Task: inverse folding
């Protein structure tokens, strides 16, 4: 299984988990990232039991949304799944980990917005990963 198929499979695990948690319908839209942010705020403990595993499925969902909406592609660098959006490198799994462990200040929707701005040539001050 290639990295794109693996990430797509993990993204659908997040879709199912959100539905089962009563967190609404995740449809890979930009607005669903805000819904996912809200679901994390509501349901994820301050110190989740396995933040790496949780971040992997959340990050896969964020990444798949970027793939579908902005045309990025999954690739593997040093054994890690990352996205390429032209010359821009994105790490949605890292962002998801920060969202889970540091809170709403690391919004998933804000991350998407920063990637979209960077694609348009307007990378935010401090870079995408700090958006």
Result:
């Amino acid at each position: 299984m290639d990295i794109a198929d693996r990430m797509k499979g993990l993204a659908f695990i997040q879709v199912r988990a959100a539905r089962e948690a009563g967190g609404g319908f995740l449809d890979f839209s930009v607005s669903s990232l805000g819904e996912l942010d809200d679901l994390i705020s509501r349901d994820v403990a301050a110190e989740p039991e396995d933040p790496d595993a949780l971040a992997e499925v959340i990050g896969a969902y964020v990444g798949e949304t970027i793939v579908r909406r902005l045309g990025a592609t999954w690739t593997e660098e040093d054994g890690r799944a990352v996205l390429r959006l032209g010359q821009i490198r994105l790490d949605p799994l890292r962002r998801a980990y920060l969202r889970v462990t540091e809170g709403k200040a690391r919004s998933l929707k804000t991350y998407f917005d920063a990637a979209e701005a960077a694609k348009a040539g307007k990378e935010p001050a401090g870079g995408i990963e700090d958006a």
Remarks:
- Residues 3-107 form a domain with the Four Helix Bundle (Hemerythrin (Met), subunit A) fold (CATH 1.20.120).
